[in-house]
Structure formats: structure tokens, C-alpha cells
């Protein structure tokens, strides 16, 4: 018997274990500690009442974990544990979740899917999702020599950056890297800021535990002057031997692609951002 239910009464430890098992054989396997799982869900805004699990024979067989903010929703993670696949569980979870979101009046639903994950992509396209943009991911190797941060770069809390950030960017970050998502985990961020007499000229925000650069931007009138490289060098000085990861960069930004290439960044498997409009049921 298959029981489709919300995740309201499911412990983090159980959701984390199910997610780790579901992602264990992916092209990029995910194995999170409970603390890392809790941070991931806090960052992305897990809404337990809008999230669903499939329970088979007393075990969580599949998950569909969702965030709901204002009139938009986001699929944080979905997966089916290997032993329970080919039973249509993902489709059942999707239909239950989307019905709940429509009931709430949500108007837009989005997620990302990894390139090459054709099974998940097929499900999402079958639901009516379309590609909004292509996203690049890369790793910037740790430097072979010790890096020194520029004296002009200061470490600040995220709330010292957030108001200026939209004016410095050329494109909006994906859901998990958005200003609101970063504001949910200020204690888990390393934020670097450059200023001149006119205000902020560049910034970088990274996840402290992993060295993942969630956002980096330089003001348009100060680009191509080495400020971005200075921010990366300062981050490398902070993270030491930990390579920096750049996740979900808008792929059609040729300038940023050239910047990553100049840094010696190693391309990783990219993603597609998918969206679909929802028509509220009420």
C-alpha cells in the first residue's frame, strides 16, 4: 500500500536518510549530514505542509520537498529510493504537491534539473515545465600558494550587502542563491565587500562550510579592473585548501564565463532552471 502524505510530521533525520539514499546513485551523489540537510532546508525555505512523501510498508520511499514564498514555489529536492523506483511514486507526489500549491493560490512553480538526468527532466516536462535558462557550475581549484586578501576587502554580515546586491548584478540568482535564501542562513555565510566613495563596488557571498560561492558581482562601471579576481583571491585566503565551487551561474553571460576561464575554473555538470505557471484552484 502506498501512503502519500505531507512531510509535516516527518523528522529531519528520516527525510535526510531518504534523500541520501535517493541520490546515492546520481551522477553527482549527495550524502548530507543531518546538520547540512537542516541548513539546506533552512536556506531554501522548506515548507513541510507543502512537501510530500510516499510511505511504502512503513518506510519513506520517495520525497518531494518544496518551498513556498509569496505566490511562488520551488521544488528543493525530489527523489525515489532505488528499491522503490518504477512504481510511479514521483508522479503521485508531484500531483499531490501541485494540487496543494494551486489550493494556496501559488502562481509559479520552479526547480532545477541536472543535465543528463533525463528521467527527472521527463517527469518535469510531462507536468508542463519549460526551460527558463541554462545554468553553469564550476570548481575553482585551491591556489598552490597562500593567498592574501586585499586590505580594501572587508568581511561583513549578509545584511550589509543585501540592499546593494541587486544593483550590482546583471542577472538574478537562482532560488537557493537568492537574497531571501541567503538571509535565512546568515550564520552560515562568509561575505566579502569592496567599496569606493560611491558605495559598494563588488561583493562575494559563500557558504562557509563548503566554499560554495552563492553570489559574486562587481558594479558595472568597475568591471574588468580585477575586482572580481580580488574577491576570489580573498575568498581563497579565507577557505585555504578548500576549492571554491560556483553553482548555478547564468550560462549565457559570456563575460562571467570568460572570468571563470581566466581563473582556471573546471566546468562541472550544469543544470537547467525549469518553470511553469500555475492556475490557482480557488
Write a concise synopsis of the structure shown.
The protein has 282 residues and is an alpha+beta fold. The protein folds into two domains: 2-132 and 272-277, Gcn5-related N-acetyltransferase (GNAT) (Aminopeptidase, 3-Layer(aba) Sandwich); 142-264, Aminopeptidase.
Provide the fold topology.
Blueprint: E1 2-6, H1 12-22, H2 34-44, E2 52-56, E3 59-69, E4 72-80, H3 89-104, E5 108-114, H4 118-127, E6 130-140, E7 154-156, H5 165-168, H6 179-183, E8 189-196, E9 199-207, E10 212-218, H7 227-239, E11 244-250, H8 254-262, E12 266-277
Parallel strand pairs: 4-5, 10-11
Antiparallel strand pairs: 1-2, 2-3, 3-4, 5-12, 6-11, 6-12, 7-8, 8-9, 9-10
The parts where pLDDT drops under 50 for at least 5 residues are none
Q: Report the span from N to C terminus.
A: 31 Å
Biggest beta-sheet profile: 12 strands, mixed
Would you tell me the overall average pLDDT? 95
Question: In CATH, what is the homologous superfamily of the largest domain?
Answer: Gcn5-related N-acetyltransferase (GNAT)
H/E element sequence: EHHEEEHEHEEHHEEEHEHE
Number of helices: 8
Structural class call reads alpha+beta
CATH classification, class level of the largest domain: Alpha Beta
CATH fold assignment of the largest domain? Aminopeptidase
Specify the overall morphology: elongated
- Can you name the CATH architecture of the largest domain? 3-Layer(aba) Sandwich
Number of domains: 2
Strand content: 25-35%
Strand tally is 12
* Relative helix content: 25-40%
Radius of gyration: 20 Å
Strand order of the largest sheet: 1-2-3-4-5-12-6-11-10-9-8-7
Amino acid at each position: 500500500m502506498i501512503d502519500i502524505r505531507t512531510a509535516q510530521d516527518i523528522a529531519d533525520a528520516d527525510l535526510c536518510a531518504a534523500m541520501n539514499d535517493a541520490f546515492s546513485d546520481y551522477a553527482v551523489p549527495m550524502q548530507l549530514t543531518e546538520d547540512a540537510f537542516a541548513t539546506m532546508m533552512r536556506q531554501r525555505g522548506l515548507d513541510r505542509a507543502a512537501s510530500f512523501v510516499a510511505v511504502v510498508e512503513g518506510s519513506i520511499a520517495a520525497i518531494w520537498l518544496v518551498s513556498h514564498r509569496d505566490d511562488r514555489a520551488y521544488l528543493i529536492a525530489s527523489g525515489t529510493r532505488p528499491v522503490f523506483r518504477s512504481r510511479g511514486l514521483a508522479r503521485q507526489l508531484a500531483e499531490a504537491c501541485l494540487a496543494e500549491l494551486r489550493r494556496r493560490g501559488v502562481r509559479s512553480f520552479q526547480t532545477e534539473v541536472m543535465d543528463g538526468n533525463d528521467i527527472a527532466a521527463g517527469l518535469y516536462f510531462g507536468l508542463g515545465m519549460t526551460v527558463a535558462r541554462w545554468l553553469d557550475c564550476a570548481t575553482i581549484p585551491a591556489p598552490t600558494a597562500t593567498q592574501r586578501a586585499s586590505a580594501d576587502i572587508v568581511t561583513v554580515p549578509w545584511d550589509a550587502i543585501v540592499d546593494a546586491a541587486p544593483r550590482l548584478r546583471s542577472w538574478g540568482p537562482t532560488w537557493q542563491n537568492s537574497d531571501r535564501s541567503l538571509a535565512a542562513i546568515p550564520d552560515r555565510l562568509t561575505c566579502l565587500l569592496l567599496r569606493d566613495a560611491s558605495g559598494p563596488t563588488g561583493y562575494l557571498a559563500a557558504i562557509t562550510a563548503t566554499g560554495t560561492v552563492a553570489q559574486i558581482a562587481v558594479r558595472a562601471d568597475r568591471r574588468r579592473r580585477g575586482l572580481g579576481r580580488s574577491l576570489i583571491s580573498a575568498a581563497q585566503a579565507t577557505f585555504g585548501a578548500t576549492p571554491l565551487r560556483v553553482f548555478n551561474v547564468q550560462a549565457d553571460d559570456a563575460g562571467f564565463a570568460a572570468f571563470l576561464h581566466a581563473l582556471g575554473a573546471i566546468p562541472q555538470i550544469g543544470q537547467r532552471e525549469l518553470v511553469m505557471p500555475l492556475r490557482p484552484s480557488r
